[in-house]
């Protein structure tokens, strides 16, 4: 079946060309659709591509049963309910770099326009006036630009401001002295930026911590005659406080590309002659629109064909060099997790995953997500994936612990998955022996075994006594269950022992009931990997 992609906001035609060209991908446009029509189209959709208009709410996400990936052609994902996407196992990707340059250039255009009042002068000229006195501006040279948020766009703006011979002071919680030096900016606290700047430009995301960060208190700290630019997100500046600060003369001008509610047609700030505004045009260039649409289209194709993405928002991306190291263990970890979902009895409290040998040097978080995916898949089926496995495990109260050790008992690598329930603690260990030999389960609880982690297994705990193996074999033959391989492990002669049988089809509870009742058999588990 084709991988269906619904596009609900207008995207550059050149940008979606890779999707049109991809094999087995079907595109459905919902750019003119009502919400009901969009929901209808999403019923069999696997991907949804949006810009900032479509509000991807929890309700919308929950009404899209087959959705696997949401692509945001742009940076900000504040129109997407990320928690709801993660909880539903939907990966969200964005295009973080595609419009950086355009947004930075737009910011510079806004700074220039504010300084020289170009839009006002143009409007006045259009009204037939030749008013040269009214539109005296200010120079940028040697003025101080304050940048709040020195990420991709903030840094590009800093470069350009240096070109205008401005002094730049910036605040970003992650700004290091080294980066500040490299960019030629002075690092400061928020207050130092507010106090020093002649122009202040905002480049943070809209977060709980940045909402209304430029408020009445902040305006008080600024220089008289300061000019403010917001090409990031509406809501970071308290618009009522900005209005008052302009009316009082504290703020000489404001340039806004974004506002807390968009479209912001008719907003009272637009009535002030000190304000210039554009309708969220920061990324609206031919180049940026093509670039962001190409980026998300390629990620959707990558997801549909390889199951991975380059720009995940709700799950950490795996750098290529790490992917090379962990990818061989994906299948093994998922199978070990699944194995334990069948092997452990009782309410699960804790899952401890130990990575030994060569894996002790590696970022193993992708493997932990995979183990949890395997473990939870018994109950969550395909509702669990590596986007939401950690979230789901946490939600049901399982405590997840990762351990690393160089000691790997003679194996090159060894992964132990231990499950602690309110009734027992069970363990399985596995190793990857290389491309040719594949993976093996090498220990189940205290018993050393050598089992391929695949197919249908029967785990039979018994007392090491003559006859046990024979009786099991005879019963399975009577049930027409063929044994492909068999492994026996024991702690000591005559002590506790385990049989691990690979059988040709999944054994039902009825088929193994008699084995459970046999003498010297203590427990039987049927495991489908
Ligand atoms: P980015 O993630 O590269 O940078 C954001 C920076 O903000 C980070 O360095 C982060 O550390 C910093 N930050 C977070 N909280 C902060 C705080 N409390 N104080 C100071 N800094 C803080 O993002 P980006 O690509 O540079 O985008 C910046 C903003 O611009 C985003 O809001 C994005 O949505 C918006 N944007 C708007 C347009 C537009 O059309 N107007 C286009 C592109 C991006
Ligand atoms: C963004 O976050 O990328 C911008 O707001 C641009 C947009 O998509 O409108």
Describe this structure in words.
- Helix 5 packs across helix 7 (152-163), helix 15 (365-380) crosses helix 16 and helix 17 packs antiparallel against helix 18.
- Helix content is 33%, strand content 24%.
- The protein is elongated and about 110 Å long.
- The chain has 4 domains: 3-96 and 287-306, NAD(P)-binding Rossmann-like Domain (Rossmann fold, 3-Layer(aba) Sandwich); 100-277, NAD(P)-binding Rossmann-like Domain (Rossmann fold); 315-424, 60s Ribosomal Protein L30, Chain: A (2-Layer Sandwich); 455-529, ACT domain (Alpha-Beta Plaits), CATH 3.30.70.
- It is of the alpha/beta class and 529 residues long.
- The mean pLDDT is 94.
- The site of nicotinamide-adenine-dinucleotide (NAD) has 31 residues, from helix 5 and helix 7.
